[in-house]
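G., before I forget:
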Amino acid sequence: MPRQSVPRLLLLLPTATYRTAAFVEAARRLGVDLTVASERPSTFQDANPGGLVTLDLSHPERAAAEALAFAREHPLQGVVGVDDDTAIVAAAIAGTLGLCGNDVAAARAARDKHEQRTLLAAAGVPVPRFTRYGVEDDARQLAAGVSYPCVLKPLRLAASRGVIRADTPAQFVAAFARVKRILDDAGCGMRDARGVGDGASPIPHPASRYLLVEDFVPGREYALEGLLVAGELQMLALFDKPDPLDGPYFEETMYVTPSRLPGDTRGAVAACAARAAAALGLREGPVHAELRVNSRGPWLIELAARPIGGRCSAALRFEIGETGKGKGETLSLEEVVIRHALGMELPALEREPQASGVMMIPVPDAGVLQEVRGVEAARSVPLVEEVVITAHPGQELVPWPEGARYPGFIFARGGTPEAVEAALRAAHQRLQFVLM
Amino acid sequence: MNPAEIRISAEPIDTGRCKFVVSEPVHAGGVRRFASPDDARGSPLAEAIFAIPDADVGEVIVSGNLVTVVKRSPAPWQTVGKAVGQAIRAALAGAEPAVAPKPTAPAAPGTDDDALYERVADLFESQVNPMVARHGGRVELIDVQDAVVMVRMAGGCQGCGMADVTLRQGIEAMLQQHVPDVKGVVDITDHAAGSNPYFAAAKK
């Protein structure tokens, strides 16, 4: 059997991800052989059977069996999922093929907001008080027994889609009905599995018909990016979220790092995230955690077994350190994740000294995008490095809580977090979205 | 031409590559790729871009109103991009053409771009385009220079969330298999202008 010198990575890329370019480019930079797996076939799959494969990403165990069959022809040394769902698939594949990864149960626990909350609360990790309800339950009856303010959250949607704060029973009833509609629109309606054909959407997970009602936790929110190696969490970056996320909807706007929290509070946040990862049973790979901090300390709002979403990873660069590459060269977050998955040497993982930030451009209004004006003016703002408009002309923009797609991203780097935040705001002010 | 009237939009692809979309045509004679300062001699725009301090520019590709710059330095595009913009404005305002016509001298042995072009064009016509057509896409072969293939994606490929997969795992892999003399593929598509991508990014 010939010795395989270049490791092969299986990259799980759903066709709706923003992460394609960053991960494909990272694999190229690392010089690894790449197999891209998606839930729908590439038109090139027959032409490049080692580089492209279709897996049933909606059924982790089935995907693992398919990956096992694939690996007999094309041995795999690592697997990476790029989002919440593919993190479970990656865990299943890693378990089946004996690769570096998490247990499926741990990945599932991270994916399901109720299971996550239950495990974290049992382990003593500070989480909001919570209850799970079915969307068919009587909201008027429930409203009387809920403490306010509260937050309603679908169990399986991403990007704060369908997350609504309610301060009164009347708001609760309205929010409950709205979440139910959002779940229906998102394809989470109950269907008869026997009626689902090969080309249909995946059968909805049972959890998709539930929602979580939890206490609203006052305080500022922070996002922690980390990497788990053999159960130890290394904090790669801690982001401030300078805009208050007090509802009624929870569309993200800005991430700025390094955090301006005092050092001991940063340590408490990192320790809280580490306890949460351990409580879920996560041991390997990227972690993205969202926490709130108030006078009682950090509260774990959510932890995901995946890297930061959207295009936001471009805000992170890591110094090469002792790996011997040229001075000034940096690693992307995706390169770090791939290196870890393949068991390649990891550098010190020190984030670059500059402050950095990203703005997920808020949806300006509901409508069909005609054009975006002022992009060049936004780019000309000092410290702004990039303005990326990801929405295309003719695309329908849907505000939160029904929406989940940002129309674009702004990136800035500078000497201080304050300067970066100001640059992001200034650039955003110069953008004008023309809707039909 | 008044340099102040020229509008330039920078679209970084990653830390190493950035496209500059110019409101005026920069070079009407097809695509020109410059892989070194020596290549750039006689083309004021490329000479100026290679001379940008601390950028360590490795490649400049000019096509129509598009200038693609590849750099090796970690300097941010915010800094390098402004210098590229100045170079574009100065070159367009100059008396000489910003980019000289492609030399007709025979290529060095082993890098017969014309022969490669024919082979790549055949592959695109017979295999690549029928494949991407299934998703409403099209891939245009723009040029081959120094064995590097330049392509532009259109239709369902333009702005598609999986365009990089198509480029690297599809087109590049096919070229490696069928035309192994090809050294690389450069995508000069303005993906931001794609209005009907086959796969649109939808998640956070």
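DSSP finds five helices and eight strands in chain B. Chain B touches chain A through 46 residues (CB under 8 Å).

More on Monday.
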